[in-house]
Amino acid sequence: MTPAARLSAAIDLLSAVEASPRRPADAIANDFFRARRYIGGSDRRNVSERAWGAIRQRLRLAWHFSEMGIASPSARLLLGAHLILAEGWSVDGVDQNFSGERFAASPLVEEECALLGKLAGRPLVLPRMPDGPRLNLPEWAMPGLVTRFGDSLAEEAAAMEEAAPLDLRANLLKVTREAALAALAAEGIAATPTPLSPWGMRIADRRPVSATKAFLEGLIEVQDEGSQLVALLTDARPGMRVADFCAGAAGKTLAIAATMANKGHIVACDTSAARLEGAGRRLRRADVNNAERHLLTSGDKWRKRNSRKFDRVLVDAPCTGTGTWRRNPDARIRTNGRDLAELVLKQAMILDDASELVRPGGRLVYATCSLLPEEDEMQMAAFLERHQDFTAVPFTEVWDALRPDVAAPGPGPYMALSPGSHGTDGFFAAVLQRHPS
């Protein structure tokens, strides 16, 4: 593809994302490229990087246009603005690539040229910007993020803009971490041990690993280090009964099965049959044989039959995903304050349901990939007020028992990881113990 054709394809992809603001951009991109199989690998990467650049800076680009009285800029204008403000293109350079020739975008009209001309020479970030666009954070999330980070918010916001590394987990049912690192090295992939997770490995760049022998043979799984630590804090041991109540595609179920050495019983629960089907494939590849899947449905009697029977119950709750914004930049604009309010209520309901499964003396582990106190500490305070037969186990106490040779990532009482402070996605986890009687 010519540079102009790549640019045109990036506009089309960005337009598709803008047209479905509630749908994850990566799912839209998958459909987009599936329908255009003629776009080769290098062209696909170029098109994706261009579109994702504009998506990553969408809040700032919108602010620049709002100053000019444009409330809903087109994908053409957004991409043109990104080229000028973030990549340093001239207006003439943009104009030349909107040539209207074969496979190129149609020529800029006079109004588009005038608007882009006003952006020429401007920096992407201006001192007069409000804190939200200046830090590339949506206004609805600012109160919670200010509460979380205070004076360090600017540094954390900058970390959320950096590209995330690729974290992997060694499947201890099949291989040690050292052997997994060696297997990757044999395939030309250099990885290093993660500092906090005893099973984690990190690749600096986002290299595809799904076609490697190590992945296909179930030696490794893709999983952020923060997510691995949630599984670690569950402290599931051989012979226990464990419920992964919001299992999704079973990433944490897989990690927990390894800590249990395939001994005992894990139930991976979810409300989506499709997600559980995907979980089944992953469980088989990893040689997990102590797990079953259960589809949660309305009126389901499974929870009543299993009341107070599980040693460990993990609730990896649906959340705003603010901790994953470096990986999913579109979520900054896909989620809003109304979503947060609805999710807080949903999380409370899920916690109440899941807590009924915990045996006396057993533990409930609550986790989110959110940085917002409303979904984290405040959710825990409300739960403990409703359920006074549970007590929070201090994070440092749990950590020191599991990782005595590694300093805890924070003082507690809960685990609160962030990209800026820990180099992981933003994860929160709380360990709650039901009173013995």
Automatic annotation (TrEMBL):
- Supply the alphabetized keyword list: Methyltransferase, RNA-binding, S-adenosyl-L-methionine, Transferase
Segments forming domain SAM-dependent MTase RsmB/NOP-type: 156-435
Catalytic center at which residues?
Answer: 369
Chain residues that bind S-adenosyl-L-methionine: 270, 316
Q: What processes does the entry annotate via GO biological process terms?
A: methylation
**Pfam families given for it?**
Methyltr_RsmB-F, RsmF-B_ferredox
A single GO molecular-function term is:
methyltransferase activity
Q: Which PROSITE patterns match?
A: NOL1_NOP2_SUN, SAM_MT_RSMB_NOP
Top-level division of the source organism's lineage? Bacteria
**The family this protein is said to belong to:** Belongs to the class I-like SAM-binding methyltransferase superfamily. RsmB/NOP family.
Name listed for the protein in its UniProt record? RsmB/NOP family class I SAM-dependent RNA methyltransferase
Q: What's the source species for this entry? A: Falsiroseomonas frigidaquae
Top-level taxonomy: Bacteria, Pseudomonadati, Pseudomonadota, Alphaproteobacteria, Acetobacterales
